[in-house]
Every structure is written in C-alpha cells, then in structure tokens.
C-alpha cells in the first residue's frame, strides 16, 4: 500500500487502492462479511448538515436497487469529513480496461453486454435511482457477467458539494446534463450514457472525444453521432438512445424489451433474441455468456414490458441459477430468488414457464396440464370433505 493511504476506514481494514477519480478514491477493504469496495468521497462543502442529510437519503434510496447486474450498496458513513460509501466488491476488469487490453467486443458478446447493462439500468431506474455517471469504467466484468457500479453516487455527491460543473464524465454526458438544466436530468441521461458505453464496447473509441472539456461539451450539444460503424440491429437502437431530446429516447424498460425481442406499444423496432430458447430450451453446452463457464440464457415473455430473464451456469457444485429480473422473475417453491444452486431434477419457474434441469444438463419445460388437473382434483376432494364436515356439525 502507498505511503499516506489509510489503514482503516471505519470498521473496514484497507487492503489496497483500486482507483481514483473526480468523485473520490476507491479502496479494496476487508469487513466482517468479506471483501468490499469503499469509495471515499472528496471533501468539498460536506460540512453543511442539510447536505449530509440529503446524501444519506440518496444513498438509502440507492441501497434498495436489486443486485442483479449491479454492485449492491452495503453501508455508508455521513458523519466524517470525507463521507464514504461501501459496496459489494466485484472482482474483474472494467469494460474500459477490457476493451483497451483486448479490443472491441465481437457480435454475440457485444449484444450480451448491451442486454446485461440494460437489465441493470432497468433495475436502477425501477428503484427510483438515476445513475448519472454510467460509463465503461463503471461496468465491471465480473466472473458471473457484467455489473454496473457507482449507481446513485453521483447524485449523492451533488448533495454534499457545491459544484458548478456537471457531475460525470464529459464524453458520456447527455446534452441536458452539460446544459446545467437540473430539472431535466432524469432517467433519459442514463439511456444516453448506455448508448455511448455500448458504442465504446463496439468500437474501442469514445463517442464524443476531444482534447479539452469545452470541445467535448460542444460536440455533445451540437453533433449528431455517426454510429454507422456499429452492426445492426444495435445500430438503430443506439441511435434512438442518443437523441438530443430526452423525451424521444426509449425508457430503460423499453430498451430492455427491444434488446430481448419483446415488442411493446412504444417500441417500433425489436432486436433478435441473443440466446432465447422458447419451447425446447436446449443444453447448457450449446451457449456461452460474457462470464465464465458454459451457460444458457433463458428469456420468457411475461407480464409487463420486460420479460423474465435468468441464466443457468455450470459450476463445480452443480448448476447456478441467476435471476436478472431483480428477484421478481424467477421462483423456486413459490419464493422469488436472485441466486440458487440447482441439481438434476430440480424445478424452477421463470415468468410463465416451469423448467426442470435434467440429468444430462438440459433444461426442459414441465408440462403442467396433468399437474394442474391433479391440483383441481385435490381441491375438489378437500372441498367435499369440508362440506361433509360442515353438514355433520350442523345436523349433529
């Protein structure tokens, strides 16, 4: 560890520095529950008690974001000269580092990245949070796939500082952010940043690059991006997300729906499904995701704009089930799950379908006709028994 670095931050033992940016310094630390990432916010006007209260409120809201494809916020401290936020530590390179080292992502990997980050964005917006600083450096490629980090921190930072410039990275800001119209800064800024992030993943270049901040901001405000270098069908979707007028951009839920091929009343175009296995769900060995190990993606259309979405991956202990719908799309024994370990013979429900893992590592639909019929007969039998009991009780 470098000289001058803290050895402890609150109850956490600092193991090393992960990075430093305009908002603060990020440390790897050890806590009672394991390794965590701690972002220590730069001290700028944090002495205002009202600002600290707003900071606490913003972090509390952000902590409610489901952890599917996000790094969950665990803890925060507002009673320090430099407030800090503790989040789940995701081991792996950032998208920025991955592309700089190995080049742009190819076809299927690019589409998976787009889908996973859109899923995270939908979960973040669903909790009432606006990220405000989505960019390749804030997408970590973990062992189980991409995770979006630092959500809610930009807004919390604004609550503790008296900055006169927009919070965020200029090349990934939306026009309404650089114009300083705070009332207009909402979820559409994240959709714009998502498109710029996917463009970087596809090309290895920032969408709005420049030698200085003023030049970049001028491009953000006035330049219509040329995304023809991107492959279809992502090209059209990215172009829609980069519209200057935030009202004309799709919402995160519409974005996710178009990515997985679900057509809504507001979505005029759809993308072909990445790995959707409708009737015959196939074997895990046939598909892979951006994470590690053989896996199968499952998307089942259900209620609402976004379908239920989950991944089953082969791991040493069996098969790992990972729900990507914020714990609202996948159920085992009637209980919603984010993660679960499956073994051959286990059943789970995703959306409107009940699936079973076979001995051969295949996923198959469970035909529910006979099961439902049996349930109806059981209900009728119970009703008959209850009726007889009532009659006996009344007649003595």
TrEMBL record:
Keywords: ATP-binding, Kinase, Membrane, Nucleotide-binding, Phosphoprotein, Serine/threonine-protein kinase, Transferase, Transmembrane, Transmembrane helix. The keyword Acetylation does not apply. One of its GO terms (molecular function) is protein serine/threonine kinase activity. Residues 12-271 form the Protein kinase domain. It comes from the Bacteria. Its EC number is 2.7.11.1. The chain crosses the membrane at residues 376-395. CDD domains: FHA (cd00060), STKc_PknB_like (cd14014). InterPro entries: FHA_dom, Kinase-like_dom_sf, NEK_Ser/Thr_kinase, Prot_kinase_dom, Ser/Thr_kinase_AS, SMAD_FHA_dom_sf, YscD_cytoplasmic_dom. Residues 288-337 form the FHA domain. It holds the Pfam family Pkinase. PANTHER family: SERINE/THREONINE-PROTEIN KINASE NEK, SERINE_THREONINE-PROTEIN KINASE NEK2. This is non-specific serine/threonine protein kinase.
């Amino acid at each position: 560890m470098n000289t001058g670095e803290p050895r402890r931050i609150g109850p956490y033992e600092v193991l090393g520095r992960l990075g430093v940016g305009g908002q603060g310094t990020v440390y790897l630390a050890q806590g009672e529950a394991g390794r965590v990432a701690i972002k220590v916010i730069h001290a700028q006007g944090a002495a205002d008690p009202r600002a600290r209260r707003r900071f606490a409120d913003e972090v509390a809201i952000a902590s409610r974001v489901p952890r599917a494809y996000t790094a969950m916020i665990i803890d925060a401290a507002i009673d320090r000269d430099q407030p800090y936020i503790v989040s789940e530590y995701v081991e792996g390179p950032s998208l920025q580092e991955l592309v700089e080292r190995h080049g742009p992502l190819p076809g299927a990997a690019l589409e998976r990245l787009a889908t996973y980050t859109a899923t995270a964005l939908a979960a973040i917006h669903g909790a009432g949070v606006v990220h405000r600083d989505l960019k390749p450096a804030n997408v970590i490629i973990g062992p189980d796939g991409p995770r979006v980090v630092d959500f809610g921190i930009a807004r919390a930072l604004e609550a503790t500082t008296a900055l006169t410039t927009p919070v965020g990275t200029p090349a990934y800001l939306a026009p309404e952010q650089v114009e300083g119209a705070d009332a207009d800064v909402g979820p559409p800024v994240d959709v714009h940043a998502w498109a710029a992030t996917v463009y970087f993943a596809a090309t290895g270049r920032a969408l709005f690059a420049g030698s200085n901040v003023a030049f970049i901001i001028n491009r953000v405000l006035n330049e219509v991006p040329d995304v023809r270098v991107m492959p279809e069908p992502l090209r059209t979707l990215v172009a829609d997300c980069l519209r200057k007028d935030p009202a004309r951009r799709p919402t995160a839920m519409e974005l996710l729906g178009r990515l997985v091929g679900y057509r809504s009343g507001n979505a005029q175009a759809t993308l072909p499904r990445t790995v959707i296995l409708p009737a015959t769900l196939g074997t895990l060995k046939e598909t892979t995701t951006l994470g590690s190990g053989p896996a199968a993606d499952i998307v089942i259309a259900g209620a609402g704009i976004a379908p239920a979405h989950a991944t089953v991956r082969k791991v040493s202990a069996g098969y790992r089930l990972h729900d990507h719908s914020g714990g609202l799309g996948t159920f085992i024994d009637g209980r919603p799950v984010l993660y679960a370990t499956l073994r051959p013979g286990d059943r789970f429900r995703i959306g409107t379908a009940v699936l079973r893992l076979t001995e051969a590592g295949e996923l198959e639909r469970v035909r529910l006709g006979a099961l439902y019929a049996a349930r109806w007969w059981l209900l009728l039998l119970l009703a008959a028994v209850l009726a007889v009991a009532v009659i006996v009780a009344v007649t003595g």
